[in-house]
Amino acid sequence: KNQVEQSPQSLIILEGKNCTLQCNYTVSPFSNLRWYKQDTGRGPVSLTIMTFSENTKSNGRYTATLDADTKQSSLHITASQLSDSASYICVVSAMEGGNKLVFGAGTILRVKS
Amino acid sequence: EPEVTQTPSHQVTQMGQEVILRCVPISNHLYFYWYRQILGQKVEFLVSFYNNEISEKSEIFDDQFSVERPDGSNFTLKIRSTKLEDSAMYFCASRGDRRVSPLHFGNGTRLTVT
Fold first, then answer.
1. Which contiguous run of DSSP H or E holds residue B112?
2. Over the Cα atoms of chain B, what is R_g?
3. Cβ contact (<8 Å) for A101 and B103?
4. What does the pLDDT average to over B22-41?
5. pLDDT score of A97
6. What b/e readout covers A71-85, taking b as 16+ CB neighbours within 10 angstroms?
7. Minimal CA–CA distance to A23: which of A37, A47, A7, A38?
8. Distance from C-alpha of B71 to C-alpha of A41, rounded to nearest angstrom
9. Would the CB atoms of A103 and B4 count as touching at under 8 Å?
10. What mean pLDDT, rounded, does chain B reach?
11. Are A77 and A17 a contacting pair, CB within 8 Å?
């Protein structure tokens, strides 16, 4: 069964600190992996997309890594800001028809001052 | 930057009533989606739509659900006879025609069935 597991479930860090969120997946055949940020009550916003051949991609203070062999990804946030408080969702796309996306449950990050 | 817009932001309806959730995808996008998110749970795929027809649907998307693109700009989700368990946030999303392109989500319609 195609699944995406994220850890930790939630995380509290101090403003200015770094953090790393983890994603493990069993989606097959694999097409690409995406990280989204979802603010409370809003739609998810795309941070990065990585295909099989990419193992790192950055978007400002966000850096995602992908190890397609171990089926793991991480999202590293550098110098966190209060506005980084959100749910971070790992989404994996399977190549089966229609480019279907499998969503993880998300990691809820709270950045406090 | 262009965005996906959804209306209404909140819809309250009684069990058994029909509801129509509306979306205006980004204008040059070709692929359209509906997702739902029950409070505190993960986002779930409902249906994808391309070239004026459903390309894929999940087991959630039963006969009570339908989608339509009535004109060149709107994309709607209809629930014919709502149930309590249909209460959720419904997100519309769209993307362009590159094989790997980001999904752009709207801010959702919160549906409350009483």
1. strand B109-113
2. 13
3. yes
4. 94
5. 54
6. bebbbebeebeeebb
7. A7
8. 28
9. no
10. 93
11. no
Nearest CA in chain B to A44: B105
A78–chain B nearest CA distance, Å:
23
Out of B42, B45, B106, closest to residue A43 by CB = B106
Are the Cβ atoms of B108 and A43 closer than 8 angstroms? Answer: yes
Model confidence band, residue A1 (pLDDT cutoffs 50, 70, 90): confident
Tell me, what amino acid is at B42?
A: K
What is the 3-class SS of chain A, one letter each residue? CCCEEEECCEEEEECCCCEEEEEEECCCCEEEEEEEEECCCCCCEEEEEEECCCCEEEECCEEEEEECCCCEEEEEECCCCHHHCEEEEEEEEECCCCCCEEECCCEEEEEEC
Q: Report pLDDT digits (tens) over B75-105.
A: 999 999 999 999 999 999 999 877 778 899 9
Whole-number Å distance between alpha carbons of A58 and B55: 32
**Does A103 contact B103 at a Cβ distance shorter than 8 Å?**
no
